[in-house]
Structure formats: C-alpha cells, structure tokens
C-alpha cells in the first residue's frame, strides 16, 4: 500500500507523532500522491517548510523502487510520482494474499459489539429497519476484516407499556373476529398483521375469550411477542443478517442488572430524589438536563434499562468498543447515555452511535408512510421479495447513514448499468467470462512469480493497479470512521475503471505475454470486487 510506504519513508526523517496527510493531489499532473508533511513539521523542527521539503524530496528520490519523481510544490508540499514497477507488482501482492488481501490488524483483536436494528417487537420490520440492518451487518463484516473481534447483537425491548398495548391490540382483534363490535383505540397497533395474529391465536386457543381478562391479555402479549420475534429473525436471516446474541430487556430485570446499576450510581452520588421520582445528575456530565431513572410510581424508565444494558456491555462483558446503530429520532438520547457512562467510570468515547436517517421509498412516484401503529408501511419482507437482497443492501449503502436515502424501486430492479449494484456485479461477471474464454482458448494462468508484469503498461492498466493498491486503505478508513459506504464508493470506482478498460483493450489477444499479464490483472480485480461485495453482504455472480 503506497500511502503507508510514503508515510514510513517520511517518518524516517520527521517526528513520529506528526499529523500530516498523504492523499491524491487535486490534479493528475501534480503526481499520484501529495503530502503536507513539510508544512506541518516546519514549526516543530524550526525549519522553513520549503527548505525541509527540498531535503525530503532529495532523500526520498533515492527510493527508485517506489518513486520515479518527487518534487516540491508551492510553499512546501511534496508531490510523488510512483514508479511504474511498484504499481505493476500490486498484482502479485493481491494474488499472493488471496482472499486475505485488504485485511489489516487495525483492531488488534479488540472486542467490539455492534448492536443494530433492535426494533420493538410490536410488528414486522419496515424498510427503515432494513437500512439499519444493512449498515450494521456490513460494519460488523468490515470491523472483523480489519482485525476486531466482533459480536453482533439485537436488543429485544420485551417489557413496558408497548408490550401491554401489543397484547391488548391482539385481544381486541380476537374479540372483533368473534363477532363483537369493537371501537379500536387510536394508540393501539392497527395493521393487518395484528388481525392475522389474533386469528392464529384463536385457532390455537379457542378458549381465549373465555379466560379472565388479565390471563387472556398476558396470553395475547406472549403469543404476539413470540410470533413477531420469530418473523423478525426469519426476515433478517433472509436479508443475510445473523446475530451472535439476542438480548432481552426483561432479562436485565430478572438478573437484577437494573437495580444493581442504579445502586452503583446512588453510591457514587449521581442520583437524587425530587417530586417523588429518582433522578440522574446528567448535567454534571454535560447533558442539557437531569434525567428521571425511576418514576414517582416506582416504575423504572426506559433510560434505566439502557443504563443497565450499557453498564453490562462495558463493565461485565468487557467490550473495548460499542457501536449502537439507532434511528435518527434517537439523536437526543446520545448525550444522556454518554453522561451516564462517564458517571460509571467508562470512557464515553468507547461508545459510538450511528444514526440512521429515514428511507424515502419511491414507488410509482409516491412516498410510502412508515407508521407502525397505523400499519401503513412497506415491510422489509415486501421489498426483499420485490427487488432482492443484493439490490437492497447495496442501495442502502450508497449514502452515509446520517443522510436521508431515496430508494427508487424501479431502478433497484433494473438490469442496466444505471443501477449501481448491477453495474458492480456486472463488472465481476464480465471478468468471470474472461476466464471461461481463456480456458476455452487453452490459455494457462501464469504462476504468480512468472507474470510478465512489464506488459501492464497502459494508462488503463495503471488506473486499475492504483485502485487495487488503495483497497486496504479503504477498508481501514471504513473501519475507523464506521462508514461502510466507503466500500460502496470504492467498488463503483473500480467497476468504472474496469468497464472503461473494456472499451479500449481486450484481456485476451494474439499477444500471448500481454494476455497472460492481463489475465493476472483480471483475476486480481475480480478478487477485490468479490471481497468488497462480500463486505457489503452482496453476492458476486459469475454470470449475468
């Protein structure tokens, strides 16, 4: 990876902790990479930046294996032209490492938990949840690839008023199905799935409506929870998302975690009583106001559950980093959670919260509503059956998660290059066809040590080689910044370079040596496309 090599060469002559950048310059004629290292270091080492840059240029120019030119620009920038021989050997490095190309030790085995989706088990998952699932699962894949030990977790909100409302919603529909006139409350769950649940429960328990009301409501609640959770799990698995842990909120109470957490906060002096309620001194840790953890009625708040849950994550299970993937409507919740972690002695920076903005589902020129209680929403399952897993996952990862996303259903289904996932998968399939043709022509793939690298000498060859070299850095940046869309953007760039290559060159020609070199390049590009798609949870088809 040339960026790391440039940094290593510069740091042989500069202070180790220098925060300089190495990145592509604004224009191609300014080289392959540029750095502001001399500008940043000038003040530290008491040298004029341009003078220091000239000295660095002279020293780094000696590395003919890495650079064909190193020049000073402006007040002290350094521009690098990478040696063609370096780019050509990228193919060998990619093929030698195989599927591990792009892996890094960034995480150094540190334990990270990614908690995502965690939708209330009160109805089917909608497309907003699907976006969170795509982001969370892809992020878990990227972090694992970058050397972290990753645990995927789903937190089940299976207690509190919402569960009582769910149970009552099913019970009322069951009574309605049995012939009663029911005035259905506006604040209850009203979707067709509630009627379906009621019908299934009545077939299992014909005696439901003969039971005492409290017993019937509990039965409706437990049945609905079990059935909805089963459907959520099935939908996520069909979407390619599998969890290591399903963690129940009810368990937090059964194991005494909530009382234990509140007791610790009380002993540390971070709780007080006012107006009959128990409050956390959140303002002492940067929040805008103090927060209730137990109501005057004696019932713990949802925040109390979250305190216990995050205390358990950090102080009992020992995660080094926790990534919570939440809906954007939870943005106001982040400061209080970080405040309570600080109160518990946990570095709040170890909690990273990603906020998933809404999905605007465009179908027939209309936006679909997402109201769970009204029941007027497009489910994950419906969209999955209409456009497929690959199109959904890739499209959800074409934007930063904190930006709203317009999902065009017709485009996602289209078998044409305007569809981003088709564009990338088609690049992979085109390369697969190259190998089928090579086999038909009896052209053998060269040994890695015998690839005629010097035949990779066109601008289009170098464009692909540079992108291949860049892939490990993209993985590290995606892991560090928690931004899976960086992989998506990279794949689109690589696919564009590959499709452009096809307009100007043939991988297989009469020139056997050039064909062997290009066959090696094709395999390297195909391998990186497949690996990148896998990090997004998207398939890499051999034929299309």
TrEMBL record:
Domain DALR anticodon binding: 424-544
Coiled coil location: none
Cellular component annotations (GO), alphabetically ordered: cytoplasm
Assembly notes: Monomer.
Subcellular location: Cytoplasm
SMART domains linked: Arg_tRNA_synt_N, DALR_1
UniProt-recorded name of the protein: Arginine--tRNA ligase
Top-level enzyme category: ligase
Gene Ontology annotations of biological process type: arginyl-tRNA aminoacylation
Species of origin: Thermosulfurimonas dismutans
Pfam families registered for this protein in UniProt: Arg_tRNA_synt_N, DALR_1, tRNA-synt_1d
EC number in record: 6.1.1.19
Intervals of motif 'HIGH' region: 119-129
Chain's gene name: argS
Taxonomy of the source species: Bacteria, Pseudomonadati, Thermodesulfobacteriota, Thermodesulfobacteria, Thermodesulfobacteriales
GO molecular function, one term: ATP binding
Reaction catalyzed: tRNA(Arg) + L-arginine + ATP = L-arginyl-tRNA(Arg) + AMP + diphosphate
